[in-house]
Amino acid sequence: MNHKELSFLLKNISILYVEDDEDTRFEMSAYLELLTQNLIVAKSGLDALKLYKEFKPQLIISDIEMPEMSGIEFVKEVRKNDL
Q: Cα separation of 55 and 48, whole Å?
């Protein structure tokens, strides 16, 4: 698969991006918006879980170390709901 084909496929994929650090979240969101028209951004694992249930994104990119709910805990909750 070449770069153009990959870009075309990503444009239509919904991505949930989870990052608690504001600067990192801002920079990565700007980059991800170049790849997809369907970007959903969360500030925490708890916010991400709510957004996941609402939008059911096709791809999740998550920070691991976050307060309240880690990225690992978030993914475990997603897996519970999807199995």
A: 10
Q: Report the alpha-carbon distance of residue 21 to residue 28 in Å, rounded.
A: 11
The string of pLDDT tens digits covering residues 10-50 is 788 999 999 999 999 999 999 999 989 999 999 999 999 99
Residues 6+ apart with CB under 8 A from 77: 49, 69
pTM (2 d.p.): 0.89
- Residue pair 36/61 in contact (Cβ under 8 Å)? The answer is no
**Pair of tokens at residue 27:** 């920079």
| Burial letters 29-61, b for 16+ CB under 10 A, else e | eeebeeebebbbbbebbbbbbebbeeeebeebe
Q: Give the integer Cα–Cα distance in Å for 29 and 76.
A: 23
Between residues 6 and 22, the one the model is more confident about: 22
